[in-house]
Amino acid sequence: MKILVSRLAVAAALSLCISASPALAEAAPAPAAAPTAAQADAFIAAAEKESYDYVTEASRIQWVNNTFITEDTDALAAQSGAKGTEMAVRFALEAAKYKDVPGLSFDTKRKLDMLRNGIVLPAPTKPGAATELNEIATRLQSSYGKGKGTLDGKVLNGSDIEAEMGELTHTPAEYQEMWTSWHDNVGKPMKADYVRLAEIANAGARELGFADTGAMWRSGYDMAPDDFAKLTETLWQQVKPLYDSLHCYVRGKLNEKYGDAVQAKTGPIRADLLGNMWAQEWGNIYPLVAPKGAGDLGYDVGDLLKAQGFVSTSPSEMDPAKRGFWEKKMFKYGEGFFSSIGFAPLPDTFWTRTQFIAPRDREVICHASAWDVDQKDDLRIKMCTKVNSDDFTTIHHELGHNYYQRAYNKLSPLYLNGANDGFHEAIGDSIALSITPQYLVDIKLLDPAKVPSADKDIGLLLRQAMDKVAFLPFGLLIDRWRWGVFDGSIKPADYNKAWTDMRLKYQGIVPPVARPDDAFDPGAKFHIPGNTPYTRYFLARILQFQFYEAACKIAGWKGPLHRCSYYGNKAVGEKLNAMLAMGASKPWPDALQVYTGSREISGKAMLTYFAPLKKWLDQQNKGKSCGW
Ligand code: X8Z
Ligand code: ZN
Question: Where, in this chain's numbering, is Zn(2+) 2 bound (predicted)?
Answer without folding.
Answer: 397, 401, 425
